[in-house]
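[Structure tokenization] protein backbone as discrete codes

[Encoding] learned vocabulary of local backbone shapes

[Begin record] amino acids and matching fold tokens:

___
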Amino acid sequence: MEEVKPDIRHLNDMREMFSEAKDNENPPLYYMYRGVERDNDLRYDITVIPPLMFGSEYNKTKGHYHYSHPELYVVLKGQAIFLIQKGIDEISEVYFIKAKEGDAIIIPNNSGHFTINPTADTVLELSNWSSINSKFDYKPVEIKKGACYYYTTKGWIKNQNYKQVPELKQKEPLNEIPKDLTFLR
């Protein structure tokens, strides 16, 4: 198998997504190894998110929306917080899932999602299975400068660029990793 080189997202690629980023820094925020494996029309990716802080805010992915297919994530190492929101300008539902090594979550279609490394000292590694037919939309996130909530050492802070943001709820990860991935197609 050919070695997969990562796509690297730097702070300058998404500076406006953070509530407290200094102008003089541009570290790599995360590494995306796309297409590590394939299973017909499913793609297996790995993402590595270092433990970085920007003021009081934890490192995170840029996030995106997808409208046609769900995704399955598994935490391989470290801890993660997945923030999932429904709606674009007016958010109808928003929740987070805390996950640790071995935990899995499903990102439903018609949702925006973001992954946060909620530590200042541990690398987060996670994998995901997604349909090769999924289309990812970053534009709504770019316009709103991130998710509807930022996660900081002070807790959750609402992003004021959204018109309507409901109360944030917590959900639990899956009890086990699904063996049958046909629901992703």
Observations:
- The chain has a mean pLDDT of 95.
- The two ends are 24 Å apart (CA to CA).
